[in-house]
Every structure is written in structure tokens, then in C-alpha cells.
Amino acid sequence: MANVKVLELTSDNFHEEVLESSIPVLVDFWAAWCGPCKMIAPIIDQLAEDYDGRVKVAKLNVDDNRDLAAQYKVMTIPTLLVFKDGEIVNQAIGARPKNELAKMLDSLL
User: Is there a domain that residue 89 lies in?
Assistant: First the structure.
């Protein structure tokens, strides 16, 4: 079951939800067949709970949104990009522990 606090991104809502967001946005570029993506999914869900109202946490399926994956030069998944004011301000490639991702977010708050 998908976490209701984790936003599903598509090419249609990416601009509005990420680039025009008034708060930082953590975007998880993932795919259903990706093992490490599945490993960090519970961490992404926890971050969405922990940072609710302060940071938007979102997932973007690279298979369904190849245009955005290409635009942000996502070569490896999971790739986590943090956007603030429409700009990428931080990134992590590969599965990362929760405390490392939390530090990335805390630095923006």
C-alpha cells in the first residue's frame, strides 16, 4: 500500500508540485524492478511522515516518466534529488540510510 503522504509524480504534475513548491521537495526516482528502490521505500515513507508539512516527499517512476529521468540525467536508480525553489540543492544516488537522508533535509530547514 502506498503511503498517502508520499506524492506520486508524473510529467503532468512535476512542474507544479516540485518546481513551484514553497517548501523543499525530496524526489525519489525509482522503478518497480529496482531492488535497492524497494529497500529504501520504507525509509521514504518514514521521511514523508517525519517531515510532513515541512518537506514534500515524492516518487517518480522513471519507466513511466522517461522524459523527466532524462531531463535530470538520472542514470542510476534510486536517485534522490532535493529541490528547493525549483533548483536541485542536494542529491543521493543509491540506497542510503535514513539518517543520511534526514541530514540532507535538515540542512534546508
Answer: yes
Between helix 98-106 and helix 35-50 the angle, nearest 10°, is: 50
What sign does the CA torsion over 65, 37, 78, 51 have? positive
Nine-digit cell string for 24: 523543499
Phi and psi (nearest 5°) for 26?
-95, 120
Structural domain includes residue 43: yes
CATH label of the domain that carries residue 14: 3.40.30.10
Nearest to 75 by CA among 87, 89, 58, 93: 93
List the catalytic residues. Answer: 34, 37
This prediction's pTM: 0.95
d(CA 105, CA 94) in angstroms, rounded, equals 17
Whether the Cβ atoms of residue 37 and residue 89 lie closer than 8 Å to each other:
no
The pLDDT tens digits of the residues spanning 53-87 come to 999 999 999 999 999 999 999 999 999 999 999 99
